[in-house]
Amino acid sequence: MKPRPIYGSPSPQLTQSAMSGSQAYPTPPTTVSPPAAGPDRLPDPSLFTPAVVSPGLATANIGPTIVTTMAGQAGAVGVAQEAVADADVGSSLGEMEGKLSVGIDFGTTFSGVAYGSSRHMGGTVRQILNWPGSYETFRKVPTCIAYYQASPNDEAVVVAWGIEAKALTLREGFYKVEWFKLFLDPQVLREGRLATSARLPELPHGKQPIDVITDFLSCLWKYAKERITEEIGSVADLEAADVILTVPAAWDAAGCQIMRQAALSAGLVQSARGGDTKWRERLRIITEPEAAAIHASTLSTLFKLKPSQTFIICDAGGGTVDCATYKLIGQLAQLEIAEMSTRSGANCGSLFLDLRFEQLVKSLLRTHPVHLDAPSLLAFRHSFSECDKLVFAGEADDDTLFRFNCFNIEDSHDPTVGLEYGELVVPGSVLRRDVFDPVVDQVLSLLTHQLSKLPTQRCDALIVVGGFASSPYLCQRIQRAFGDKVPIIVRPRDTDVATLQGAARYGLSLSKDGGTVSSVISPRSYIMKCKLPASDEDRYQRPGFIVRNDAGVEVCENRLSYLVAKGAVVRKGQQLRSRYCKFSRAPTDCMFTAVLYVSDEDKVYRYTDEGPLEELCRWTVDLSPLPSFQYNASTTPSGGFYTEFTLGLLIDSAEIIGVLVTDEGEEVGRATFEFFGQD
Known about the structure:
By secondary structure, the chain is of the alpha+beta class. It has 13 helices and 32 strands. The relative contact order is 0.17. GO terms for molecular function: ATP binding; ATP-dependent protein folding chaperone.
């Protein structure tokens, strides 16, 4: 039986852009440059002892020991000022005061929901702990969804999600989909499934990654609304709530855009009343380390950190590990944090221990295929993931023999490969060498990279959060590698939900002064190709790029205009503004289209042939609401007209937003981004 589904006009001397069909400004815009750093002085470090590890799912009563050491004094690290204009990017303070804030940590392996309201809950943050499929309390639920599809031509129907999907026994026509967040990894978006096909799940016929993410978020959100309403009643006003989603630091704008589309399709935010034209802005996407930093900042007195000191957040989760460096600014009574360097991240979370363990099993038992079928591999991996992975202590376990029961009883004894009477026996030294060290080494590399960006390659504290932070071996290796450079290395209480708690607190902070995080670092350079009036340098450096436009003016083609440079300090809610010009042949010719490029290079280039560029997206903006366009369209004789206008680029943590503004600074429209490389 089929299962039941679960519910003015400028001078014509301005020239046309070679790549976008738009007009370029006569002079390049102000480029926001990377910050300058000041001196930093740190005391000798102290010892760090890893906190207690609790096995299994993250349950509500987990309370690992908080480990702190004495903090030292640190000099201020300078932050360069940026030349950008203010922007109003949210609701007014009066509208936001007391609104419900819902944080969603959509993880590779586990997801959670937290919520709070300054008016109805006194600013406290609560979490959903009860989930379908279990009478126990869990702080997170498996990021897993199950479908039934009778045939490839039939629609795939959601039959379970979370704990129930994880426990589902697969039969013909059923699909259990996990790890689907990995589809939004930048490498997968660029190269497709082939580059990392071993990690990516099989999807039902006709389902795209965005569909699966939408389905899971729909189930999660529907249940979350029920639980929140039960907890605080109708005052919740979930239809007007701010929803904050967290994403890995390594994601680019394309992945964030897909995430936003999925969240909107899942109904996480919607119009709450007539005339609510900005309802989409109630959905905010921030990076996981930023959310974790917000949570950590509430515990700053516990860590004995003081304003002007710096700390690194290492968010070691199931799929990704993200690192970012922040500086405490302001007073403890009203603390803010500012990002100090570009974020870094990689796919080296605890999930990849499971995958490496599975590869080890396949290697050991390659001559015993009876133990390599899907149920056998699943049993081995489950035993490792739920037990041994959580307590592995590194070198101390080198001589320990770890035993894993075989799923099949046939061919169960061959000591030469580790099979002993129905068990696979693996020495701890082999687990460390082949499973743990390759993944842990990647985490240490990310942290080393973050420290290298600081002037003295030292900081005041290193805060390790995320589910992977429960690994004793990871904590040991971090202490061993950085104990002489960082005086405080700590794993706070409730480490596995630091990102989730921080996301909800981010929403609460919006009703104050724009948020706890006051500035971010641009992770990449955002660039436009353009034509500009030729200079003597252009004539000398690139004579082949010099041409005359229709007005007879010498211009240089293939010039680069940096909207913002990699590593630049950008204050939250501020616009990076640039002037443009468009020639319109008729009043109906009102759409401006251009290509936005990105670069991961630290160097700023002048010409297109100097360094690698990557096409990020095509952005389109409707100029018809602009008063100057309306005036020119109504007064200019036939033959066409020029319109100068200003576009503002906002880099808000994980997302980029393009806005059209008048000469008086009023926002009159938003750009539509069409990202390249999305199938």
